Amino acid sequence: MDNKKTTRILTDLKQSLLDDLERGASGSETVTLEQNKVGRISRMDALQQQAMHKASQNLIRKRLVLIDKALRSIQSGDYGYCESCGNEISASRLQVRPESLMCVSCQEQVENR
Ligand SMILES: [Zn+2]
Q1: 106 or 45: whose pLDDT is higher?
Q2: CA 74 centroid distance within chain
Q3: In CATH, what number is assigned to the domain containing residue 60?
Q4: Residue 113: Cβ-neighbour burial (10 angstroms; 0-12, 13-18, 19+)
Q5: Cα 58 to middle of ligand 1, angstroms
Q6: Taking a C-beta distance cutoff of 8 angstroms, is the pair 113, 107 a contact?
Q7: Pick from 102, 70, 62: which is nearest to 85 by CA?
Q8: Which domain holds residue 14?
Q9: What is the dihedral of CA 48, 112, 100, 80, to 10 degrees?
Q10: How many whole angstroms from 104 Cα to the centroid of ligand 1?
Q11: How do residues 66-81 score in pLDDT, each as one tens digit?
Q12: Are the C-beta atoms of 70 and 79 separated by less than 8 Å?
């Protein structure tokens, strides 16, 4: 495991997610402003948009928490090992989701719980 490379990947990912959060925050303001000005968006649409926006912001925040955990696990040498069963997490999984803290089967168990 190339710790330096992994740290950089995770740090870059973290930065781009933080950018997304910031952009998202200003994006929601734009929606509200346009709604007041034009009045084309119905209240329901606006509420739905807001809910979707909140959900995606929450997802980003969750990923950021995982990334911080992953960065700490690099320091402690636990990175790449499932925090639940201790098995190695597959390289292909880490490539797609470098912030993964669990192997696929443990993750599925958690999600289906
Ligand atoms: Zn596992």
Answers
A1: 106
A2: 18
A3: 1.20.120.910
A4: exposed
A5: 25
A6: no
A7: 102
A8: 3-112
A9: 180
A10: 7
A11: 999 999 999 999 999 9
A12: yes
